């Protein structure tokens, strides 16, 4: 899902730019449909494994809302291809693209909420790795005898 989420600003730019070249809209709508299909599949898996259950519900709901927004966007793209000079349809297409962008940000926030535990583990593992590296460095300097001893004992006595 992340690929779709990060590609959306590019897609939004292309979609709004294509308002002046409606013949490009068919390919963009097809690509968005494919990308959404992948997102829906991965979103279903993310929702099934999310803890707590309400996060899974939120992911599922927001992915569905995004799907509805994509449907409206594809419909507006088709309408603009039929009548490429209609300024009202152009504005509607741009508004639909903005709405889809907002829905993608909601999907992303739901996915991130479901990922908090994983991110906390990654952060903790990184902190522990840093501590281990600091201890290894201290041991290396102590073994080399470069640390100042407070008394006449050696590091080997305490190691």
TrEMBL record:
Subcellular location: Cytoplasm
Entry-linked Gene3D superfamilies: Alpha-catenin/vinculin-like, Talin, central domain
Gene Ontology molecular function: actin filament binding; integrin binding
Signal peptide residue numbers: 1-18
SUPFAM superfamilies to which the protein is assigned, alphabetical: alpha-catenin/vinculin-like
Sorted UniProt keywords: Cytoplasm, Signal
Protein name, per record: TLN2 protein
Source taxonomy: Eukaryota, Metazoa, Chordata, Craniata, Vertebrata
């Amino acid at each position: 899902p992340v690929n779709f989420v990060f590609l959306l600003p590019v897609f939004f730019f292309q979609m709004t730019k294509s308002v002046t070249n409606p013949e490009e809209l068919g390919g963009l709508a097809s690509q968005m449909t494919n990308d959404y299909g992948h997102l829906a599949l991965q979103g279903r898996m993310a929702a099934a494994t999310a803890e707590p259950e309400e996060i899974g519900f939120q992911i599922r709901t927001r992915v569905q809302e995004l799907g509805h927004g994509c449907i409206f966007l594809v419909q507006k793209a088709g309408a603009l291809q039929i009548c490429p000079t209609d300024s009202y349809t152009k504005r509607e297409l741009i508004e639909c693209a903005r709405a889809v962008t907002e829905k993608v940000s909601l999907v992303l926030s739901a996915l991130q909420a479901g990922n908090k535990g994983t991110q906390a583990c990654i952060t903790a593992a990184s902190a522990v790795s840093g501590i281990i590296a600091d201890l290894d460095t201290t041991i290396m300097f102590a073994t080399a005898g470069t640390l100042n001893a407070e008394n006449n004992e050696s590091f080997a006595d305490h190691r």
